[in-house]
Amino acid sequence: MSIHEIITPRPQLPVYFDIYRTYNQLIPNHWHNHVEVLYIFEGTNHIVLNDKKYTLHQNDLFVVNSGDIHFTRSLGASRVLLLQIPYELFDQCVVNFDMIRFRQYYPHKTLKEDPVYQKMIAHLLNLARLYVQAEKGYQFLFISELYQFLHILCGNYSIMKDPAKESKSAKHLDRLKKIIHYVEQHYQEPITLEQVASLVALNPEYFCRFFKKHMGLTFMKYVNLVRLARIHNDILQTDDSITIIQERHGFTNYKLFNHMFKEAYGCTPSKLRAKHIRHK
Fold this sequence. Notes:
The protein has 11 helices and 9 strands.
């Protein structure tokens, strides 16, 4: 998955929709133009967005607004509903959508008695049922349920952006997105603070403070998390040796790699692969 996700809708559907299982998955800070909806069927997930940390449990809902930089990880085994709605779909249907944001966090514990919220969730779960059953012509019913879900979301859980705050944060976001894009393109190579700081016209010392403040971690730790996410994927999806995978994705210090991998995923690379093979 690229750090700036480019989402392609499924055939015959105007959105990307999936129900997936994951184990200790980590997706470093990334962004996309789509609005992203996550609903937790099973497990626990952490999301870091705009300097705030959220812990999602079973039946919790989370909405990531277009352009927001966010980090996600699952703790152990999770089953998650993922709905990604193209920005263009909102823009066609909602006047001045560029000035609207959605509420982000919807904890089941505090909203389980809210009839409006429960009606919205019922439409979302109907999407899952229709998608899994995939009966002939299901796309018509799917689109109907989708628009009812979005109607409640827009009508009840959207707010107008503050133009002054948006203007102030836009410059920071542009810089961060430029950095993220650069790392995505060059993470397999050695990357220095001086290189990236000059890319966004900052001196290295100020760049370090700027990055840590807005991303919640140091720049070099972020680069290594990007590498680890690619390595994690290759361990599960290929038969290549751990050493080859590690070197392919820019890790030359094996001791540091092993330490960071175990810290991120709770086990060694070889144990992760063995566990994956057992559960196939």
